[in-house]
Structures are given as C-alpha cells and as structure tokens.
Design brief:
With 383 residues, the protein is α/β, with parallel strands linked by helices. The protein contains nine helices and 14 strands. It starts with a helix and ends in a 5-residue tail after the last helix. The structure holds zinc ion (ZN).
Length: 383
C-alpha cells in the first residue's frame, strides 16, 4: 500500500469522526414529538387529505380534530408555521392534550411546516432540542427547527418566483420560497411549501373554518410583539371588533395586547392572503422569544425554557429595543399561556358576535392557572 493511499484513508477516517455524530444528530431531528392521548380528540388526519401532492413527502402533517358534536363554528389553530418559534408548537400540543370542545369544532396543526423541524438555522447558534421534565418525573423532548422548509426537501430556491398571492420573491427574499408564511394561498402542484399552504387553504374551504389563529414568535427587535394581526378584507370591521374585544379582555388580565389590520402589502402571509381568499376570519399573534434575536447570549435550555436574556434587557434599558423586555426573563410557559389565552378570548368574542357559530372551549384554564401549572403540569405524560 503506497503512502498516498494511506494518507487518503486517514483523511476519510478523520472526516467520518465528525460526519457520523453530526449525521446521527441531524437524523434524530426526524423523530417527531409524541402527543399524549386526549379522549376528546375525535379524529387525526393528514394534510394530504386536502393537498394530495403532499402524500409521502416530509411536509405531510397531522391535524387533530376535536369535535363537540354540537353545531357551531370551526376554529383552526396553526402551530409550528416557523419551527424555531417554540411557543407555537408547544401551545398547539398543549391544546391537543388538554382541550375539550363543548360547542363547535377545533382543528389543531402542531407542525405546520413539518419539514422545517428537521434542520436548524446555520450559524445562528440555536439549539436543536430542549427537554421538559414533567410532574411525574418523565422527560419530553421538543425540537427547535428552522423557519424555512428543509432544502433537502425543496431545492433549489429560484432566482425569481411569483406566488399565488402575487408576491414576487427576488433578491434577498429568494429563500422565502420555503417559508409557509409567504406562500399562501398556495398551489396544489406548486413547490413543496406551496402544497402545504394549499392544504391549509383547501382545509379552510372544505371544513367551513370560521376562525383561524396562526401562532408565532419574534425577536425583541420586531415591532409586532404582543400584537394580533387581523385580516384586511370586506368584513374587516367585525373582525377587528372581535380582535379588539379579545385584546381588551387580555389587557384587563394585565396582559399587553393590541390588534392591528394586516399590512396592505403583506401578500403571501396567512392573515393577508388566506384572509383575502377564504371567508374565514384570519388572525396571527406574536410573542417575544428572547432566544431569536442576534443579540442573544449563551444558547442553552435556560434561555429556551426560562427566557433569561440579559443582553436584550440591557439593550432595552439603553433605548435600543422598543419592546419592554421583562427583568426576570420571559419563560416559555408565559408565552404559551399568552397564546392559549388569546385563543380562548378570541373564541369568546367570536361566539358573542356569531351565536349560531359559537366555539366553546373547556379544559385550558386562565392565563394565571396555566402559568401556575407550568409546562410540567400542562403537558401530559406520553406512553
Ligand atoms: Zn413566525
């Protein structure tokens, strides 16, 4: 065996030392979170039921249906549109595990961009998973993905693309062709991300969904935190009065919240383009996620779960960040409680305005009750 041959083998072996553990780590991101049984879940269906082009792809995703059996309205809840915004997925999972619907129907999608949960954000210093230890001592693991579809599943990003909303993706927006929240209302035979969008669009139409909440989080620099966007369309005054009633109820509970109309040029976003193209009332809410901005410090489970980020607190005190960064951190449980409470008040206000399409929820409690329970009490043990 000559020397070059031996050298090559050594280089390959050294490369494998790094590649094998990295591959095992990345492959583990395909292991989906388990969901605890809830006897009030009446059906579980895949999104490909509404968008057949998703069948067999990494983006086909479960939707959980909780049907009261009593005629009323239908609420659709989207979690995990952006898989790096953990409160969205955790809120959706906590609804699936705890909710009982007493009138109408609720449909929950915890992993809206399922492919996005299988990769991380390169160079962002993000974790790929975090653990929650439950009251009974067992541990549940949750993934932190990327806001875009995995390029392994959808590639290449085009240099120019015009979505069904009319949004033109060019220049720095090229990669947004893999962003579920830029590609509505979607296309049955479009790129993979558009097929996800189309599935949600068709689900809203086929199931006569009346109200939609798309749950998001943002970095502290983002101006729409603690804000609910409401669709801009013909019947916008009723939608805004429902959202404002929700915001007032939250303010009375001591929780900052405001409602704003969807931006006139927010084409491709759920609240704008599903609002424009379906009869459902569209809403999207954002909470502050201290791990998401570029100023974040050490990335660990304390930051993800307890939300302590001294850099942002200092930036706020120095006048560089508008958002009122809480001194004692912004734990994940408070962000989850905020999303769930927002949904609860939205349903109440929607039902008052539309008594024949009432959506009556039970089993989730008030904001304070959720926070006291903690994630360890809110999430259920899985077998
Ligand atoms: Zn988002």
């Amino acid at each position: 065996m000559n020397k070059t041959y031996i050298k090559n083998i050594i280089v390959i072996l050294i490369a494998l030392v790094f590649a094998v553990p990295a591959s095992i780590d990345f492959l583990s991101m395909h292991a989906q979170e388990q969901i605890a049984d809830n006897p009030h879940v009446s059906d579980v269906r895949m999104l490909s039921y509404y968008s057949p082009g998703l069948k067999g792809t990494a983006s086909d995703t479960e939707l959980f249906i909780l049907d009261s059996g009593k005629p009323g309205g239908t609420l659709l809840v989207l979690g995990g549109t952006h898989p790096n915004e953990s409160a969205g997925m955790i809120s959706a999972i906590s609804l699936v595990e705890n909710l009982k619907v007493n009138q109408g129907r609720v449909i929950v999608i915890p992993w809206t961009n399922k492919s996005g949960f299988t990769h991380t954000s390169p160079l962002d210093g993000m974790l790929d998973k975090f653990d929650i230890t439950l009251a009974d001592g067992c541990t549940r693991t949750f993934r932190i993905g990327n806001r875009l579809t995995n390029p392994v599943d959808q590639w290449p990003d085009r240099s120019f693309y015009k979505g069904t909303s009319g949004r033109k993706l060019v220049g720095t927006e090229n990669a947004e062709i893999r962003n579920v929240n830029r590609m509505y209302y979607g296309k049955a035979d479009g790129v993979l991300t558009e097929k996800v969008c189309y599935g949600i669009f068709d689900l809203i139409q086929s199931e006569d969904v009346n109200l939609v909440m798309d749950m998001h989080e943002g970095s502290p620099e983002f101006l729409y935190l603690d804000c609910t966007m409401v669709n801009w369309k013909q019947d916008n005054s009723t939608a805004m009065s429902i959202a404002s009633s929700m915001a007032l109820s939250m303010q009375l509970d001591g929780l900052d919240m405001r409602a704003e109309y969807s931006g006139k040029s927010s084409y491709g976003l759920s609240h704008r383009s599903l609002g424009d193209n379906t009869s459902a009332m569209m809403t999207l809410m954002e909470t502050y996620n201290p791990s998401m901005g570029p100023l974040h410090g050490k990335m660990d489970e304390d930051l993800i779960v307890n939300g302590n980020e001294p850099n942002y607190l200092q930036a706020h005190r120095d006048g560089y960040v508008y958002f009122d960064v809480p001194e004692n951190g912004y734990p994940l449980i408070q962000r989850v409680a905020r999303h769930v409470t927002c949904i609860s008040y939205l349903c109440q206000a929607f039902s008052e305005e539309n008594p024949d399409k009432a959506i009556v929820l039970e089993g989730i409690g008030t904001y304070d009750e959720i926070v006291v329970k903690g994630l360890e009490g809110l999430l259920k043990p899985v077998k």
